[in-house]
């Protein structure tokens, strides 16, 4: 895939920092200064008083610890304050708009959390007898029915635990289908558009396929002439991995023709469904000729990015790939729901098992709650509002920033850095946005756009919040266009100033080392 080789300085330019009043405590207003937790352990104390243990012969066989554990000793109030102060440095969707593109960091309804904590969902164990978890299995099956209906696909694997895991599921199903056809050794080439998600070529390569890139055209979509040229020159096509809407925030208008061309060439069509939230309720991928597509439950159906924990990436499959779905999967008979665990009988053609157990229950409960709360018409409005909000941002900002492509966008607005003066770069705009109280948008991605700024407002933001964000970004963009050097030193108001990110990435300090006696004496 194309690599961005553009170098950029990451150290603040001297003389660009405005005067700031220093404080004796290190704190500034409600922002409390907080050192590392190890640095608060100045006296080797402990927050709990315990009687000394009666001496008995050691049962450690000579491998007991000789030195101190070297864990910090804090009281309960000190411990709580430490983590509360750290939390004040963190940005969150409950704090403000999260403009990350292609990530869908949207509000997670609290009703979903309440349902996920119900007994029978939150406290079950995967090794319980299946007769004791019939309600949970029924919920998974109902969610699967919703996913099949929304996508127009006949089958779905609920096992994958994240988006990339879902990609792997789809591509393994394609590989198994080629094995069944006796063509696994002759069909090794997978076409991947330049505008696809970065995990797509990695997944194809992991499955043993050769990755062949397809160019993007001037509209930011698949270059159809290049695609036809590839198909005419080779007969080893296994399939295509295409993101739709793509990473440029655009719907692939030739999607049906692409599917037909791939099928005529004997390949399968894998669609990356990470951006399904832009079309849910509006377009059924099955109608477009898709053979496999993963769905990020933790994006499309709330709990953004797994809520800091596990995600969930069910993969829908066409009739051509359904027999090769992984185990376990659910079947219903006269005795209720049961899990098919082995690759025999009903699962004799399965490519095998991807994970120890059957998906992630908390994500399943949240997703189904979201679906039932919205209903079919509500999910359609979710997609419409996401697209409306992104186009509103594009309309508000296009007078001061440069849209990467002409026309309307889908769920995310993409800008290039053409509007900036010499010396001002995308990273400077992103750092200045921190001073305005926002997490930066996605920068320098997708790689097909120079200095990209990718903004996804999601459907959950009000017009007032969008206007606040646009006002801030407009002011920063005006400074960038004017070549304002103060941007090179931003952020000024964040707990940490701008770092040399290149050195931080190449030479990270991953372990705290206590100061030497000489350092302590010098202080």
UniProtKB/TrEMBL annotation:
Record Pfam families: Aminotran_5, GcvP2_C
Catalytic activity: N(6)-[(R)-lipoyl]-L-lysyl-[glycine-cleavage complex H protein] + glycine + H(+) = N(6)-[(R)-S(8)-aminomethyldihydrolipoyl]-L-lysyl-[glycine-cleavage complex H protein] + CO2
Domain of life, source organism: Bacteria
Biased composition (Polar residues): 1-17
Matching InterPro entries: Aminotrans_V_dom, GDC-P_C, GDC_P, PyrdxlP-dep_Trfase, PyrdxlP-dep_Trfase_major, PyrdxlP-dep_Trfase_small
Enzyme Commission number(s) from the entry: 1.4.4.2
GO molecular function: glycine dehydrogenase (decarboxylating) activity
Stretches assigned to the Aminotransferase class V domain: 188-306
Gene3D superfamilies (alphabetical): 6.20.440.10, Aspartate Aminotransferase, domain 1, Type I PLP-dependent aspartate aminotransferase-like (Major domain)
EC class (word): oxidoreductase
Transferase among keywords: no
Residues covered by the Glycine dehydrogenase C-terminal domain: 384-481
Key word Oxidoreductase present: yes
Region span, Disordered: 1-26, 503-523
Keyword line: Oxidoreductase, Pyridoxal phosphate
Annotated TM spans: none
Entry function: The glycine cleavage system catalyzes the degradation of glycine. The P protein binds the alpha-amino group of glycine through its pyridoxal phosphate cofactor; CO(2) is released and the remaining methylamine moiety is then transferred to the lipoamide cofactor of the H protein.
Protein name as catalogued: glycine dehydrogenase (aminomethyl-transferring)
Source organism per UniProt: Ponticaulis profundi
Gene: gcvPB
